[in-house]
Structure to design on (1422 residues):
């Protein structure tokens, strides 16, 4: 697999929301990602109980889709991307998934024909492999997943994406212990290896059906760290450690694009600004509207270089203003209208500066994801092409360095100590992958369920 | 120089005026009668012109008899409904037409010496504790204009009052409107009281707070989305359709 | 009652979000409205069933308040205003309301003491008078309302507000018939008269307790028209007629400030940009975050000159990301952070231009509420001080004229016709209030329940 | 010139760093023993240093006997909990301390020739169909570190397996974690199966998807918000507190 060795952009200033170096067109219209404007992406989630029968789940998806489309027509939104993040029953039953996608695509066609509403459909297959319970390469789950990629690609999906699980067992152990070694091993090495094994298969399926291989996210690790770090009142994981884990995430999520994924990336991949700086693919981000799914400390800032703007996932239910899907379609639609209005007025850079100012110094996570710092972390990654390990380590160290160097990025004493310790720990790690892997394979044999053969060791 | 919206000409990336894209072609109302005297009545209804209807009805009652006038009024209103369905008419035009129709109808009934036989009887109300009555009023106007007897109990109506009215008037249908999540549960109680009284009719529930899912979770409940569904629903109930069949027809049920 | 005869601002360009001519300080901190920055306002609504007992409703309000405050602390929001829009059981039981306000205020104090989180509490008493069912000046409901104003003012409320109901009976009849005469009579005359009777009493209660008399809204009429007009796929009320009704709303809501209310205004008073242009009071608006309560066609634009940014009302329930109160506090908080970041960067005018560009030509409602047009409508109002009727009529005609004059404001043929007819109808109305009132009293005697003595006729 | 965040110095109107405002004063762990040999053990626990604990425990087992070592380990862990409660420690420090404690405990138990008598037995699991196990793992570590026997059934555990384990181990408490709204209903079934089996113990339910309201709507359910509540809850159950009393203590119920 070739690795990225240079940046897609000459400097961070060249990066702006709505425009990507390598645009992608999907669905009816088509929806053009990265070609100057931003588009909204709604991610609806069915209610508990609706998965009981195929008829019920189809009805649920029909309603959710109808709500999204009709609300766009009612409010004048020019385009909508709908992502179905599969529930268990969809991925494990490829024919359910096929029926759900067929139905949604027909609804989208109807709105395209009647109103000219542009739309596209993303199939995010659930990675059902739990690394401490199955062999990642040989299990029932992987068969289901590949089949469902195929069945949804054949039946209306415009984009295939996933949130892969590799390295999760080691990462979970490590994040609970502020163990940077395990974090880098889990994210930077194991997850990268898993992606390099799985992604060519996904790309092949997408190519077979002439659709788009989208992207992957470090959700299972990077977001776990970020959510555990939580807000200013939480004391589960230091925010600085979560930010370092995120640096690592970028080195790891890059593998999808090295395997042929083209974007749109996955919404919850907060590492995407770094991915965009390196690859130039259009990125999907979730920000203020993803409050429905989780709290975060950089909800405005992540709009700085976004191409597709999402809400993460909202469970279907009634609110005063309509269904939750209508409500969040509306919020996303107006967010996007604001961004596109800025673009049309020639104020994109001003709006970017505003959104960055909102959150760059709110928390270290926003700090490192601000376009300037993302760009620097990207440079550290592409300068270290020798191994997955080394580029992950470089990303972590660059992240730490940036935080340390900016006097406006305030930290509590506790966070400062955690950062210093993490940095020292990482600096002490071996200089080459083989040594590092040896060390980790022996140390993490104590992690329940960790099976090196899952990764081809 | 500060740039403003005035510097823009192309808004397509920001919003699309779907209303303009889908605007139906203007269309004149179709004639409902070749007889100019009757067509004048229908025209009055179509244009929502009470004076025109009064004048034309007066003449036609004398020359053609009240029943013909009534039939014409109803044909005029049917044309109005068609125009609304096609997006040519908006609600206010329909309401004005229904006002006009009532003027003619009252005149014709007076001439007949008795009220026209109604197509059925509908008891309507807003939920106990709820004063949001516009949707109910609109639906009532439409149902009435389509030849049904409407007993409008108003808003904030106790459940017992609703059931009593249904009993007293041998209603074919009860409808309830609620805009607040705190009031809508009254409809379920209305339905249960009806059962207790042995009155086997459907309860159509509607209004902003009310969801199809909830309404179809208890016996007798049939959910309505739009006021314009009212007349046909009244027709179904008057024709003796069971609440189960009405629900199957009008609601998405799995 | 003196009437406003001039504008608070020299031109619309002087108007900007965050700053008002006549700032108001409320609550712990205090929260300074109109003194350069915007603040978030969350409006939580209890779940059905929670009103069953006093203990239950207290618990519900405790949770909702806690969620709002703790989320601000977790995410670093500097301030929060909480509005309780009374449910029936609060206004009709002044001692329930008192207990709820006492409890919330204590919670706010705790967060102020521990974190320095600034906060304030608004008591919006429910106007329980339904004009076709009671005499507006002599009924049980008015006694409850005045008592509850007093009990909440005495027990923690920082601001008293209300959404009054005058003229609703005539308006409802008229809006269903595109009857501009009835719309002007209901909103411009009857509702104004009702406010002029009620508001001095509210102001007196606020003064007695040393708190702030906030504002009123044309919700019962202007918002009914706007919501019935709906989106681009609705055919209930022409959008142009709803916009004309809104012009009228401004003439009417002004009465509160003439009676001594100082702002913050009511969030759902979409006429507030006009009110601000005339009076200079800080205004509360609801926009993109009020999707939880209703859809609208100007969600970004209404931020153009806002001082306090609200979500309208969200029913309490669980979402993936926490409770709905947490979710919407978060959305509001980030919206406000964006606005304040723009102010700090010196990009307030740019952000204003962006938000206006998003919606000015989306629909006539946004068009007339854009700061330039709001200002013009305000001028028409203050130029017509002779009577409530004449200024309402002037506002309507100016609104129509502005829509007609701007070739970028596209209309369907149907909307154009509706506008032309409405304009002609209004132009044909009498030149003085006495004639107009005579005409209306006789014509609207047919409206069920309309009782002229309710208005002192 | 384009202005950027770098031109700003005062962020107070945009956000407030409450974490800095409320940061607790750094504080050293208090000594738990005046005996240097024992204090070394406690220090190892407090610092989460497995090697230090191993070394110090080895020496002290020989000189003071295993029970004294065990007591000291527990005192050290208590100090860790205090530091966490005060915001001085974060979760990873607690987990590392608990890892270190387990090292010493295992050595002492080996020397004793038998497992220490546990304060009670807790059966823990993630809901059937749910693989989100971090919260459960954290809680398990804390409960274990506080001297309870933990039967960790892992994730995606069928209801019957949970109940069987409770039976087999004479558990004082069952806990369940669920992060998905589609899986949490399993806890209610677990509670019902326990009742059927006549096992009268509380079911603590927790995890992102789970709400206090829902958990307190069925018998046996007690809701937990934070993992750190685990040890005290285990203590309550082991002391024989009924689920009704536990609910009253831990949950807001009206
Ligand atoms: C207008 C309005 C008012 C007016 C009502 C005037 C009136 N005479 O109706 C006034 C100002 C008085 C008012 C007061 C209040 N309101 Co109000 N109000 C609204 C508003 C803005 C619009 C409602 C409306 O008229 N819609 C248009 C009509 C046409 O729609 P509809 O009734 O649903 O009817 C449609 C269908 O349901 C159907 N239909 C209806 N009935 C029937 C019957 C049949 C047979 C059929 C076939 C069809 C059918 O046809 C129509 C469409 O074609 C809504 C906002 C919103 N988003 O809905 C809030 C809203 C309903 N109000 C709300 C609240 C909270 C209140 C107050 C409690 C506020 C307060 N704190 O004082 C009080 C209520 C006091 C009380 N005890 O009832 C909340 C309700 C929250 C909830 N779900 O519980 C809402 C949702 C606003 C919000 N988002 O917070 N309100
Ligand atoms: C990490 C994570 C994952 C990881 C899980 C890895 C793991 N081993 O746990 C991975 C990537 C595998 C994953 C997968 C999925 N996830 Co996930 N995931 C998350 C995430 C980001 C964080 C969860 C977390 O670990 N939180 C931190 C821990 C510490 O919190 P906790 O478990 O709640 O524990 C706390 C308390 O509850 C308590 N506690 C817990 N247990 C106990 C026990 C006792 C005794 C006590 C006292 C206390 C206690 O203590 C802790 C605090 O002190 C959440 C997002 C979110 N906002 O929560 C989504 C989330 C839970 N995931 C979600 C979804 C949809 C999925 C998938 C279905 C996605 C997909 N389409 O593939 C799959 C699940 C597949 C399956 N069959 O289960 C949704 C669930 C939606 C819902 N409510 O139904 C969430 C909410 C994301 C979202 N907003 O959409 N996910
Ligand atoms: S945070 Fe969202 S995107 Fe990530 S695993 Fe969870 S559900 Fe999927
Ligand atoms: S729209 Fe909102 S503010 Fe207005 S009456 Fe209704 S609830 Fe109150
Ligand atoms: Zn994700
Ligand atoms: Zn996602
Ligand atoms: Zn309001």
């Amino acid at each position: 697999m070739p690795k990225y060795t240079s940046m897609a952009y000459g400097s961070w200033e060249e990066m702006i929301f709505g425009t990507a170096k390598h645009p992608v067109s999907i669905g009816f219209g088509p929806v053009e990602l990265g070609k100057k404007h931003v588009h909204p992406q709604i991610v609806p989630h069915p209610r508990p109980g609706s998965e009981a029968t195929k008829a019920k789940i189809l009805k649920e998806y029909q309603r959710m889709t109808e709500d999204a489309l009709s609300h766009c027509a009612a409010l004048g939104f020019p385009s909508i991307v709908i992502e179905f993040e599969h529930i268990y029953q969809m991925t494990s039953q490829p024919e359910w998934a096929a029926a759900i996608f067929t139905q949604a695509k027909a609804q989208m066609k109807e709105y395209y024909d009647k109103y000219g509403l542009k739309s596209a459909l993303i199939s995010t297959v659930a990675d059902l492999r739990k690394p401490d319970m199955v062999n990642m390469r040989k299990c029932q789950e992987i068969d289901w997943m590949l089949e469902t990629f195929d069945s949804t690609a054949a039946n209306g999906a415009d984009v295939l994406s996933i949130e892969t699980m590799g390295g999760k067992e080691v990462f979970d152990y490590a994040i609970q212990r502020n163990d940077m070694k395990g974090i880098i091993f889990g994210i930077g090495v194991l997850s990268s290896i898993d992606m390099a094994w799985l992604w060519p298969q996904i790309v092949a399926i997408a190519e077979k059906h002439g659709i788009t291989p989208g992207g992957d996210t470090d959700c299972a690790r990077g977001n776990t760290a970020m959510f555990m770090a939580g807000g200013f009142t939480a004391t589960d994981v230091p925010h600085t450690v979560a930010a370092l884990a995120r640096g690592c995430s970028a080195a790891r999520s890059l593998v999808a694009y090295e395997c042929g994924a083209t974007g749109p990336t996955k919404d919850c991949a907060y590492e995407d600004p770094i991915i965009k700086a390196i690859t130039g693919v259009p990125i999907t981000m979730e920000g203020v509207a993803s409050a429905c799914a989780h709290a975060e400390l950089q909800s405005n800032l992540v709009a700085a270089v976004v191409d597709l703007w999402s809400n993460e996932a909202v469970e279907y239910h009634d609110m005063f203003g309509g269904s939750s899907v209508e409500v969040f379609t509306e919020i996303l639609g107006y967010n996007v209208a604001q961004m596109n209005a800025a673009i049309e007025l020639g104020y994109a850079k001003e709006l970017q500066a505003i959104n960055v100012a909102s959150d760059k110094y709110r928390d270290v996570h926003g700090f490192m994801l601000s376009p300037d710092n993302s760009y620097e972390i990207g440079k550290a990654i592409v300068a270290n092409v020798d191994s997955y390990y080394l580029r992950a380590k470089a990303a972590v160290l660059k992240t730490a360095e940036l935080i340390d160097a900016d006097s406006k990025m305030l930290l509590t004493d506790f966070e400062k100590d955690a950062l210093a310790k993490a940095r020292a720990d990482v600096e002490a790690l071996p200089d080459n992958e083989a040594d590092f892997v040896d060390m980790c394979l022996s140390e993490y044999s104590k992690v329940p369920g960790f099976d090196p053969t899952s990764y081809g060791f | 120089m500060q740039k403003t919206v005035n510097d823009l000409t192309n808004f397509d990336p920001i919003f699309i005026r779907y209303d303009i894209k889908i605007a139906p072609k203007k269309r004149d109302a179709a004639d409902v009668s070749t007889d100019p005297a009757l067509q004048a009545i229908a025209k009055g209804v179509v244009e929502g012109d009470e004076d025109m209807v009064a004048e034309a009805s007066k003449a036609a009652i004398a020359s053609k008899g009240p029943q013909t006038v009534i039939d014409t009024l109803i044909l005029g209103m049917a044309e109005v409904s068609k125009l609304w369905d096609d997006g040519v008419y908006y609600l206010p035009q329909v309401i004005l037409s229904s006002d006009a129709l009532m003027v003619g109808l009252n005149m014709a009934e007076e001439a007949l010496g008795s009220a026209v036989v109604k197509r059925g009887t509908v008891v309507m109300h807003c939920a106990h504790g709820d004063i949001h009555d516009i949707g109910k009023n609109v639906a009532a106007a439409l149902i009435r204009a389509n030849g049904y007897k409407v007993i409008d109990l108003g808003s904030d109506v106790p459940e017992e009052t609703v059931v009593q009215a249904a009993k007293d008037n041998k209603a074919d249908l009860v409808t309830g409107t609620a805009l607040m999540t705190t009031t809508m549960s009254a409809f379920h109680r209305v339905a249960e009281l009806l059962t207790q009284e042995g009155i086997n009719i459907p309860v159509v529930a509607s209004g902003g707070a009310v969801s199809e899912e909830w309404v179809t979770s208890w016996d007798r409940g049939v959910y309505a989305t739009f006021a314009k569904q009212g007349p046909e629903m009244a027709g179904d109930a008057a024709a003796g359709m069971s609440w189960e069949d009405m629900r199957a027809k009008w609601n998405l049920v799995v």
In short: The first helix of chain A runs from residue 54 to 75. Chain A has one domain: 12-446. Residues 208 and 236 of chain A are 45 Å apart (CA to CA). The pocket of zinc ion (ligand 6) is lined by residues A 43, 85, 267-268, 312-313 (CB under 6 Å).
